[in-house]
Each structure stands twice: as structure tokens, then as C-alpha cells.
Amino acid sequence: MTDRLQLLKEKGYKLTKQRREILRALEEGTPLAAEDILAKINVKCRINLSTIYRNLNILLKNGLIRKISTLGQADCYELVDPDCRHSLACLGCGNTIGFSHCHFDQIVQELEEQTGYEIRGHALELFGRCPACRDGHSS
User: Fold this and answer.
1) Sheet arrangement for strand 123-128
2) Domain with 103 in it: what CATH number?
């Protein structure tokens, strides 16, 4: 977390208790909706949902987190992994799991050569049905 906080400080942002707590909540590894972040950190510091969203936007803008949009579910947020990070989202129950095994390096290199962009990362989100939903065992 210290690298992320240092980056914010270098860009002129204050290292508020709210920002620290949002990052701490996301460090647990599970993608969280803004409401879930609020529930987790409201015990430690009084904060409202608009403050959560304002800070999430700052973290997004600075490339420290990414937004995961799933069909019919609230957007979730997770820390950006220096290695590529991808997710599988269940269309039935909405559960999302992450994975980092990736073979996109060749595609990234080709895109850089074709476009002149310096690509610093990518995200892949796959949608489907988890085993429980597929087998009809999800509640």
C-alpha cells in the first residue's frame, strides 16, 4: 500500500484516512462495490458514499484501481496488480473471481508496434456461469 500512497502524494493528493482505509479494504483481494467498501470502513472512520465514489474516481484516474462492470450487478473495484489481472464473472450469482495467468504479451507487443502506444497494462473480463449456477445449486 505504501507505493500506492507514495504515488498519490507525488501527484499532489493528501493521504487522508479515508483513502488509506479504501485501499486497505481493497487489499483484501476481493473486488468490492462502493457500498461494500463503505460498510467495511465506516466502522473505522465516518465516511459517506459520495466520499467513497470521489476517492474511487481519484484512484481510478491514477491507475491504482480498476473498475469491474458486470451485467446486472453493481460495479466493483479492485487494486491494479502490476502483473495483468483478469476476472471471471458469473451471470447467475454475480460472484467474480480473479486470475492472472495470461498469454497477451504478444498481442500487446503487436499493438504497441501498430499504434505507437506504450501499453502499461490491460484487463480482461469474461462472463459465464459458475459451477453452482450452471448445475442449479445456487440460491
Assistant:
1) 96-99, 85-90, 123-128
2) 3.30.1490.190
Residues 96 and 109 in one domain: yes
Question: First CA to last CA across the chain, in angstroms?
Answer: 36
Does one domain contain both 50 and 95?
no
Rounded Cα–Cα distance for residues 57 and 63 (Å): 10
Is the domain of 75 the same as that of 86? no
CATH code of residue 67: 1.10.10.10
Q: Which residues, other chains included, contact 36 with Cβ-Cβ below 8 Å and sequence gap of 6+?
A: 76
Per-residue pLDDT of the chain (139 residues; tens, 9 = 90+): 578 888 888 989 998 899 999 999 999 878 899 999 999 998 878 889 999 999 999 999 888 888 887 666 788 898 886 555 677 778 778 777 777 667 777 888 899 999 999 887 777 777 888 898 988 875 4
Q: Are strands 76-79 and 32-33 parallel, antiparallel or unpaired?
A: antiparallel
